[in-house]
């Protein structure tokens, strides 16, 4: 029976804090059998992961997928580079944008979509310390506005 829907495996929670997200892409990941089994157990980390474009191919580097517990000598290397599967026009578009500006490719999440492993990639620009402070101030102000509106609705 085929799986339906989207099941999250791992998310990169610091990515939205450290980067301004400009655009997102969904890409497939070329994996080995023991990697998929380990992912089904939820053993992956996107903490230091990033993507690069080399010779017209997109590679995911720094993604840690733990070795499969029941694997044998056929087990995979936990930090090997993994090829991302994108359409040629998407890759060409990414190459142009990365070359023009000070942009990078950051994985936001790793998940199963209808039984296939996908990664959500973001075309992002790094934030400076003052940008992060401004975002925190905006969030705090928005939270206070929502709290005050809630109080007025309740009649307090």
Structure, described:
Residues 132-156 are annotated as: Disordered. It is found in: Cytoplasm. This is SsrA-binding protein. InterPro entries: SmpB, SsrA-bd_prot, SsrA-bd_prot_CS. One of its GO terms (biological process) is trans-translation. It is a single chain. The chain has 156 residues and is an alpha+beta fold. It has one domain: Small Protein B, Chain: A (Beta Barrel). The chain is 33% helix and 36% strand. It is built from four helices and nine strands. The strands form two sheets. It has a seven-stranded antiparallel beta sheet. Strands 3-6 form a two-stranded antiparallel ribbon. A hairpin with a 2-residue loop joins strand 4 (50-54) and strand 5 (57-61). The longest helix is centred in the C-terminal third of the chain and has 26 residues, at 129-154. The radius of gyration is 19 Å and the shape is globular. The termini are far apart. The model has no long low-confidence stretch (mean pLDDT 85).
